[in-house]
Amino acid sequence: MSKKGLKQYQEKRNFSKTPEPSGRIKKSDDKPLFVIQKHDSRSLHYDFRLEDEGVLKSWAIPKGPSTNPADKQLAIQTEDHPLDYATFEGTIPEGNYGAGSVIVWDIGTYTNLKEHKSIAQSIQDGELTIWLEGKKLQGGYALIKTNYLGKDTSWLLIKMNDDKADRNHVITEELPDSVLSPHKEIS
Ligand code: MN
Fold it and tell me: For residue range 15-50, what is the model confidence (pLDDT) as tens digits?
């Protein structure tokens, strides 16, 4: 993956005015990262990001992730972000793209559950199944592309029915804080 994958990300931002990273390509040796950033921009949402081929593939989830397999959470695919965005927390100043506060709500690694298909191919095919090992979220999750409102960026994030599923708690409400900075919370 070349820097070309980050062109859209970089074009939207003025790095002399926002504290966000400008992006450099790193190679990670271990399992790929996943991160969920809680972002209090024009409207509060959760940015779900998966490391693949040197960038973070990204979706914005208005309601946030759920541990209940009955929930189908709308996830809008957004531009690839640089790997070093994964630990970004801070405030994007007014007048900049995505102005508002960002905390790392969850972070960990993931495994591709489709053994014979790459993440890139799964994204192209519109169906991704992954196993998350996060501090808050664990277990299988599916991301399924839909044609909601005719938009080709619309996906659904759905908890798979496994022993990590939990129908009795709303995890975003019960665990609202940053996993990197104790007691840091935005609402
Ligand atoms: Mn966002």
Answer: 888 888 887 555 556 799 999 999 999 999 999 999
User: Residue 72 C-alpha to ligand 1 middle, in angstroms?
Assistant: 19
Q: How far is CA 140 from CA 80, 82, 85, in A?
A: 22, 25, 24
Beta bridge partners of 159: 141
Ligand 1 midpoint to CA 94 (Å): 14
Ligand 1 mean position, distance from CA 77 (Å): 11
If you measure from the C-alpha of residue 46 to the centroid of ligand 1, how many angstroms do you get, rounded to a whole number? 7
Tens-place pLDDT, residues 95-133: 999 999 999 999 999 999 998 999 999 999 999 999 999
Dihedral-angle region of residue 69 (phi above 0 means left; psi in -120 to 50 means alpha; beta otherwise): alpha
Distance CA 110, CA 139 (A): 9
pLDDT digits (tens, 9 = 90+) for 51-86: 999 999 999 999 999 999 999 999 999 999 999 999
**Ligand 1 center to residue 116 CA distance, Å?**
31
- pLDDT for residue 68: 98
- Identify whether the C-beta of residue 172 lies closer than 8 Å to the C-beta of residue 64: yes
Cβ contact 54:1 at 8 Å: yes
| Ion ligand 1: protein residues whose beta carbon lies under 5 Å | 39, 47
| Inter-residue contact 56 to 49 (CB < 8 Å) | yes
